[in-house]
Specification:
704 residues, binds 4-O-methyl-alpha-D-glucopyranuronic acid, alpha/beta
């Protein structure tokens, strides 16, 4: 293993630095510190690195620190094994059982400076790894984004990427090329990119990955594929990353040739126990299973008359001897035309609170529908005190313009994390629910559906790297602000020039709201192109299921627009605490961003802006499209401060985004006008295209 590791490290460093700035190096560029005074200062504190620990993760920490410092300082920084002259950075594990080690936990670290030396201390090797990256981040951002010295600890235990990668190399909802995992080449060939991926994750604290799609193929549990999974786990382990798999609940039938996959059947239980034992024989530190069951056609316990808890607990029993977890998804909804999809996960899972085994976590999407550009927080976050709930965010931009749109997602993540559930009174923010503060959850998890792929720049849109980065940083510390994360990322990735940093930061920070404005303003949701989930299709009225159409959600008619979820409508509001109901329950006081999520509003109703609903809707659509034009103009101002390849790539994508924003604007304004029957506000120039033309443009995306 050590040999393999050195070889991989060599391959990675050569691959990582092969090209100038095609985006491959992500935020780990380690270019020379441009400010000479700072470079001198850093050089004086980083003349040597002392590493006396011998385990693989500590060794990674030392090598990463060395690689980073050499780049930043422009000269070699030798690693030595004994202590410790002035100018040394020392990585040290503390003796077990002291107050300090208890305080630092498994992954925390402390950075101190004394007698001309900097020490990074931790109770366990992962802490040294995260400490090394923290020190590097400090230097990469020229000390402008946060304090270095002191104790740092993650707020969430499992900070996890969920890959929706399929066995044949495609990625469900992936917009950055093919899967990173070359299943047919594994385990014999280890693509050096695997290690680049691992180090990027480690640098932002991600410590777990689910390798395959939740719409899972059973083949990942065969011995042939477990060997491949083992090969990846071996690469990721020195970076502190555990591997998980998504499973197909019908595997006992598919692979075991049993007559049933009923979770209460003794043979099925024995099959899973044997299978889990087998998985651990390949990957001794395997993390566990992620399960999508009885959702969108995936098999699950309900086919056998059993509950989600029966299914999850059966798997949990198989994991108990090995210390693994079952992460059971709450993304379920039935095709009831009279129901409200908003309520369905709540109705299925709330009654099961308290029935799950202690090694089960229920993973809940941030909102009740499906990763829309804006959603209210999922009502389950306020309703499961006895069941550890994991957060599931989507980093890949399924509903946010794929990889042609610049949309920085930290504000979307923060909006949900900061929402108060009132589960235990005032101050019960979603973040404090999932980090265990409110209900003392013993296990805490934040997952993000990955946006990585085989594109050279990893994420398709180069600026979407910021979303991978922001997810990791927020999973480590959800108290960080979107602005700070944007500044860190910009300084590490694009430029140190302060006016350009400010401009790029502002571009990032405003981008999500701009997308909401030109696509789904005022609380509209799920009116995008059918199936592909790209572009507008508000007129969609027929689909395989009613809750896959647009009219199910916007409910436009001659009277008004929006989904009435009050007591007069579906009463979904009732799933929230009374304080939340009070915020959103009345059309006159409901904040405009959530208005049409909860209310059917007459076209003529004056809103808090002083405009009627119809006028406000038009103003938002037009403002959103104009804002994209403004983003293009602002990007131009940073031209001389960012790499030319990046500049041109982002410029092209912003132009495409502007075209798409105009499509959203014209399609939605013209379509909703067929209900409102009103002219546009006087200061807006009506679309030059007709509704029929817009329908044809959008239909093109649906053609095979
Ligand atoms: C993996 C949405 C997506 C599906 C995805 C599903 C899920 O419906 O469109 O592609 O399937 O969510 O999260 O399971």
């Amino acid at each position: 293993m050590p040999r393999l590791f050195s070889l991989l490290f060599f391959l990675f460093t050569t691959a990582f630095f092969a090209n100038a700035d095609d985006g491959y190096r992500l935020w780990l560029k380690y270019d020379l510190v441009s400010n000479p005074a700072l470079r001198k200062e850093y050089a004086s504190i980083a003349r040597f690195i002392t590493c006396s620990e011998n385990d693989p993760v500590s060794k990674t920490a030392c090598l990463e620190l060395q690689t980073g410092l050499q780049g930043l300082l422009g000269r070699p920084v030798p690693i030595q094994s004994s202590l410790s002259k002035p100018g040394t950075i020392e990585l040290l594990l503390l003796p077990k059982g002291t107050a300090d080690t208890d305080n630092l936990g498994k992954e925390g670290f402390k950075i101190q400076s004394a007698r001309g030396r900097i020490s990074i201390t931790a109770a366990q090797p992962a802490g040294l790894l995260y400490g090394a990256f923290e020190l590097l981040r400090y230097m990469q951002t020229e000390g402008k984004t946060g304090d270095l010295f002191g104790v740092h600890r993650p707020r969430i235990q499992l900070r996890m990427l969920n890959h929706w990668d399929n066995p044949l190399g495609t990625i469900e909802r992936g917009y950055a090329g093919a899967s990173l995992w070359k299943w047919y080449e594994l385990p014999e060939t280890i693509d050096p990119r695997y290690i680049d991926y691992a180090r990027a994750n480690a640098s932002i604290g991600i410590n777990a990955v689910v390798l395959n799609n939740v719409n899972a193929s059973a083949r990942f549990l065969t011995p042939e594929y477990l060997l491949k999974v083992k090969a990846l786990a071996d690469v990721f382990r020195p970076y502190g990353i555990k591997v998980f798999l998504s499973i197909n609940f019908a595997s006992p039938k598919i692979l075991g040739k049993l007559k049933t996959s009923d979770p209460l059947d003794p043979q099925v239980r024995a099959w899973w126990q044997g299978k889990v034992r087998e998985v651990y024989s390949y990957v001794p530190d395997f993390g566990g299973f992620l399960v999508k069951a009885n959702s969108e056609g995936e098999p699950g316990p309900q086919e056998h008359g059993r509950t989600h808890a029966d299914g999850a607990n059966m798997l949990a029993e198989a994991f108990r001897p090995h210390g693994g977890l079952v992460i059971w998804r709450a993304f379920v909804y039935s095709p009831d035309p009279r129901g409200d999809r908003f309520k369905e996960a709540y109705q299925e899972f709330k009654p099961l609170d308290g029935q799950f085994a202690s090694n089960v976590v229920v993973q809940v999407k941030n909102g009740p529908i499906d990763f829309q550009p804006r959603e209210p927080f999922h009502p389950l976050f306020g309703a499961m005190p006895k069941t550890p709930l994991a957060m599931e965010f989507q980093i890949t931009q399924e509903y946010l313009g794929f990889s042609t749109n610049l949309v920085y997602l930290a504000p979307l993540f923060k909006e949900c994390l900061d929402s108060d559930t009132y589960a235990r009174g005032n101050g019960s923010a979603v973040a404090r629910v999932i980090d265990g503060t409110i209900h003392d959850y013993p296990i805490t998890v934040m997952a993000g559906v990955a946006n990585t792929g085989s594109d050279r720049n990893w994420t398709g849109h180069p600026m979407s790297q910021a979303n991978w980065y922001a997810f990791g940083r927020l999973a480590w510390d959800h108290q960080l602000s979107s602005a700070r994360i944007a500044e860190e990322w910009t300084r590490m990735t694009l430029t140190q020039e302060s006016s350009a940093v400010t401009t790029i930061k502002e571009l990032l920070l405003g981008s999500r709201e701009t997308y909401v404005r030109f696509a789904t303003p005022l609380g509209l949701h799920h009116i995008m192109g059918q199936g592909i989930h790209f572009g507008p299709e508000p007129w969609l009225m027929r689909s395989a299921r009613p809750d896959w159409t647009s009219i199910y959600y916007h409910r436009a008619d001659s009277l008004g627009l929006g989904f009435d979820r009050t007591a007069q409508g579906s009463n979904a509001l009732n799933l929230y605490a009374p304080e939340v109901q009070k915020q959103w329950g009345y059309p006159d006081s409901c904040p405009l961003p959530y208005l049409l999520w909860f209310h059917h509003i007459p076209w003529d109703k004056p809103l808090s802006t002083g405009r009627t609903l119809w006028d406000e809707l038009c103003v938002q659509y037009y403002a959103g499209a104009d804002e994209v034009a403004a983003m293009q103009a602002r990007w131009k101002t940073v031209k001389s401060y960012v790499d030319p390849e990046w500049y041109a790539d982002v410029q092209g994508r912003l132009a495409a985004q502007h075209r798409e924003a105009l499509n959203w604007r014209d399609a939605c304004v013209l379509y909703f006008q067929t209900f409102s029957k009103k002219p546009l506000p006087a200061n807006l120039v009506p679309p030059k295209r007709t509704l029929e033309e817009m329908k044809r443009i959008v239909e093109i995306y649906q053609l095979r």
